[in-house]
Amino acid sequence: DGGITQSPKYLFRKEGQNVTLSCEQNLNHDAMYWYRQDPGQGLRLIYYSQIVNDFQKGDIAEGYSVSREKKESFPLTVTSAQKNPTAFYLCASSIFHGSNEKLFFGSGTQLSVL
Amino acid sequence: AQSVAQPEDQVNVAEGNPLTVKCTYSVSGNPYLFWYVQYPNRGLQFLLKYITGDNLVKGSYGFEAEFNKSQTSFHLKKPSALVSDSALYFCAVRDAESGGYQKVTFGTGTKLQVIP
């Protein structure tokens, strides 16, 4: 089945630690996205990528970093500079950037601080 | 700047009754409008979208939404609610002239509770 796989499902971060969230898609989509979901706040865009080796900051990129070395993969690193990282993180993809097509979402990673 | 408002944090409806989840939007140009559903600890799933044409849009699982340009609304509806419809529903909007999904704005979500 085609889809988006996020791992791990749950992740715990110690203070001062960087952690990386995995996102893999086999939909052959060009565009990929990372969103952060906090209760009562909807989804906020962290980073997006239109094509391999290219990515752009979203609305809340501070404290996060990404890479796009392969079309299928778009990992997100939550750095120690992100002071409030506890949230539900969602990876998404779309056929191409700038389309009116729907977003496909992974099942999410819940990140908590120890 | 574009925005989406979902005025109700929670909607309760009895099973078998019709349901409505409200959404209003603001964009400078023509809107592209979307509804997504999220089940607990899961990602969002696409329900339906309005791009152009018929104001009544039909989507997955028996849901439909009506685009009303004069009221800038895009309310989600279903004639007969099921307990399995209980979930978190998100409305989203993009300005048709904005260029790209980075410009999609999501509402804060409405929790739908269908009571048996």
The fraction of residues in strands of chain A falls at over 45%
Largest sheet of chain B: 6 strands, mixed
Radius of gyration of chain B: 14 Å
Measured by residues with Cβ under 8 Å of the partner chain's Cβ, the largest interface is: A-B, 29 and 25 residues
Count of extended strands of chain B: 12
Query: Describe the biggest sheet of chain A?
Result: 7 strands, mixed
Overall residue-averaged pLDDT value of chain B: 93
Oligomeric state as shown: heterodimer
Give the number of helices of chain B: 0
- Unreliable segments of 5+ consecutive residues of chain A: none
Globally, the shape of chain B reads: globular
- What is the helix fraction of residues of chain B, given as a range? under 10%
Notable features of this structure?
heterodimer, A: 114 residues, mainly beta, 7-stranded mixed β-sheet, 4-stranded antiparallel β-sheet, B: 116 residues
Care to describe what's here?
The complex is a heterodimer of chains A (114) and B (116). By secondary structure, chain A is mostly beta strands. Chain A has strands at 4-7, 10-13, 19-25, 31-37, 43-51, 54-57, 64-66, 76-78, 87-94, 104-105, 109-113. In chain A, the strands form 2 sheets. In chain A, strands 2, 4, 5, 6, 9, 10 and 11 form a 7-stranded mixed beta sheet that branches. A 4-stranded antiparallel beta sheet of chain A has the order 1-3-8-7, with no helix packed on it. In chain A, strand 4 (31-37) and strand 5 form a beta hairpin. Chain A is globular and about 40 Å long. In chain B, the strands form 3 sheets. In chain B, strands 2, 5, 6, 10, 11 and 12 form a 6-stranded mixed beta sheet that branches. A 4-stranded antiparallel beta sheet of chain B has the order 3-9-8-7, with no helix packed on it. Chain B has a two-stranded antiparallel sheet with strand order 1-4. Chain B has 116 residues and is mainly β. Chain B is globular, with a radius of gyration of 14 Å. The termini of chain B are far apart. In chain B, strand 8 (64-68) and strand 9 form a beta hairpin. Chain B has strands at 3-5, 10-14, 19-21, 24-26, 31-38, 44-50, 56-58, 64-68, 73-78, 87-95, 105-106, 110-115.
